[in-house]
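Late entry, evening session. Most of the bench is empty. Finally got around to the prediction I had been postponing all week. Sequence below, unchanged from the version circulated by S.P.
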Amino acid sequence: MPLVTDYDVVRVFCAPNGGYGNELGVVREGTVLPRPADRQALAAELGFSETVFVDDPERGVIDIYTPTLRLPFAGHPCVGTAWLLDVPELVTPAGVVGARQDGEFSWIEARAEWAPPRTLRRYASPAEVDDLPVPPKGEWIYAWAWEDEPAGRVRARAFPGRDDGIDEDEATGAAALLLTDRLGRALNITQGAGSQLLTAPQPHGWVELGGRVHLER
C-alpha cells in the first residue's frame, strides 16, 4: 500500500467552548488510494471512528470507512467534510447530502433511512445514561434520556459494539438522525463526554444535522 501521510484531522460536534467532538480523518486526495482494500487498511491504521477519502473535492464525492468496514453514509464524517471542503453538497453511495454553513455551525441534510441500523434505547434519566457500562460486543446501542423534554434536550451515549477498539463513539450523527426521525422533533443532544449535536426534521423525510467543527491538523 502506498504511504499516505497527507490527511487532515477535524473534530466534529464540538461543545460551545470548542472542546470534545469526534475526531475525523480526511484524505483530501483520495484518488492516490483508489482500491477499497487500501483505503480500508489505512482507515484501520489511522484508527479514527471514521476516515473519509475525497474522490472529487469540487463535486464533494466522498468514500467513508470505519477501521473495519465501508459505510454508504455517516453523520459526523459528512458534517466535518462539508465544513472542510466548503461545498454545497456531498455525494455519498447512499445519496446526495445537502450542506450549508450557518455561523458557527456546519449543517447537512440527509435521510434517516441512510443510517445503519441502531438500537435506540431510552432511559429514565440522564444519570442512568451516564452510569452505563460499556455493553458486550455485538449490538450497536444508542442510549438516551430526556434532559429537558419540552426544550428537546437529550443526553446520549453511543456504543458501536464492534471489535475495532472503539468501545464508545463520542458523537454519532447517524444515530441522531434516527432518533430525530423517530421522535419527529428538533433535538439538542449532548453525547459522550460533552459533544453537542443539533437536529431538525425537514419535509419529505429529510433531517438536518448540525454541529461545530474545529480543525486539529
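Two things to note before I forget:
The chain has a mean pLDDT of 94.
The longest helix spans residues 36-46.
Will write this up properly tomorrow.
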